[in-house]
Request: fold
Amino acid sequence: MGIVLGAIACAVAIPLVWVWMTYNGFVRGRVRAQAAFSQIDVQLKRRCDLSPNLVETVKGAMAHERQTLEAVTRARQTALAGLGALKMTPGDFAALRTVANASQSLDRLLAGLRVSVENYPDLKTSTNVLALQEELASTENRIAFSRQAYNDSVMSYNTSLSVFPSNVLARLFGFASMGLFEAGEGDRALPEVRLS
Reply:
């Protein structure tokens, strides 16, 4: 009789322990992915905070480059608005794509601004401009690292939701997959190279 009760207890306990461990694994994966996105958010915000400083520093010397400076300012505002919207709906694929596109647009514009600065000898030697450019370059590296860490976390989390038999449990408890931070359409195009 004792052996039968022990076997029944094991037959009930083992599935319950599996459900408990799998559920907690989903929660840990989701929290890890959200924390990884928070790092992207921090770095994107940092870049958005640095870009107006660069614009203000070069504005006087580059007065006729006004369109470039205004485009950087608009892209910064779009990126900040996208980050705000994504905080309201974390994991939303459309909001994540909007933030990625706005971020990459700001990347391109800041790169263009850095190239424009090269045409102004006074700006090339300005310690403020050089320091800001270095900060922005460092921030770009951090953003790239944070994006990779986020995508790795999301991939791991999404995989755990997709494999059998845990996918059944994921559907039962309403766990949803998260979106990857992907390159925008403009970033997939090959650059045009012209040899003089």
